Amino acid sequence: DGGITQSPKYLFRKEGQNVTLSCEQNLNHDAMYWYRQDPGQGLRLIYYSQIVNDFQKGDIAEGYSVSREKKESFPLTVTSAQKNPTAFYLCASSTTLSSYYGYTFGSGTRLTVV
Amino acid sequence: EDQVTQSPEALRLQEGESSSLNCSYTVSGLRGLFWYRQDPGKGPEFLFTLYSAGEEKEKERLKATLTKKESFLHITAPKPEDSATYLCAVAYSGAGSYQLTFGKGTKLSVIP
Predict the structure, then answer these.
(1) Using CB atoms, which residue from B31, B43, B99 is nearest to A105?
(2) Residue B50: strand pairing partners
């Protein structure tokens, strides 16, 4: 079955450490997105990519980095510069016609600073 | 100012007690309005897309409607398994072509 796989489901980060969240899709979607979800804040866009080897900053990109070397993969690195990384992270993908079809979401990664 | 506002933030219903969730938007050039359901600790699951004022869509106990400034998600005779957070999102011509802007959600609890 086609879908988006996020891993790991739970991740713990020590102070000063970089961690990478994985996102893989087999839907043949061109566009991929990373959102952060905090209680009472809704979904906030971190980065998005419309095509391989190209990506753009979203509303809260500081302290995060991404790469898009393959169409299927869009990993997110939470760097030590992100001072408050504890949150639920969601990856999504869409055709380039998302205005009509919306997103397909992964199951999320919960990141906790220890 | 939020571009997409959902109300109420939380709603508790008795099983069988019908109600509506609201999603109002201030964007221009609406291309689509989307409703998602999200269970705790999981990713949002797509429910409906509405494209033009007057459009309605139904799925089981849920019915979504759209006007020029807002959308309603009507829940008829809800069951405990309908408990979830319901998210509304819009795609509009002022944003990047492939982006959705989300509201903060309405957390629905249906009590047996």
Answers:
(1) B43
(2) B33
Q: What is the DSSP letter of B80?
A: G
Do the Cβ atoms of A85 and A111 come closer than 8 Å? yes
Count of pairs with CB atoms under 8 A, one residue in A, one in B: 66
Q: Do A105 and B45 touch (CB under 8 A)?
A: yes
Sign of CA dihedral A21, A6, A8, A88: positive
Quote the CA–CA distance of A36 and B32 in Å, as a whole number. 22
Asked if A58 contacts A45 with a C-beta cutoff of 8 angstroms, the reply is yes
- Looking at per-residue pLDDT, the higher value among B63 and B98 belongs to B63
Tens of pLDDT, residue by residue over A58-98, are 989 999 999 999 999 999 999 988 889 999 999 999 887 65
| Lookup: tokens for A4 | 């988006």
Distance of residue B35 Cα from the nearest chain A Cα, in angstroms: 10
- CB of A16 less than 8 A from some CB of B: no
Residue A13 forms contact with B (CB below 8 Å):
no
Q: What is the mean pLDDT of chain A?
A: 91
Q: What is the pLDDT of residue A40?
A: 81
Is there a contact between A96 and B97 if contact means CB atoms under 8 Å apart? yes
CB-based burial of residue B81 (10 Å sphere; 0-12 exposed, 13-18 middle, 19+ buried)?
exposed
* CA B26/CA B4 separation, integer angstroms: 7
Strand spans (E) along B1-112: 4-7, 10-14, 19-25, 30-38, 45-50, 56-59, 62-66, 70-75, 84-92, 101-102, 106-111
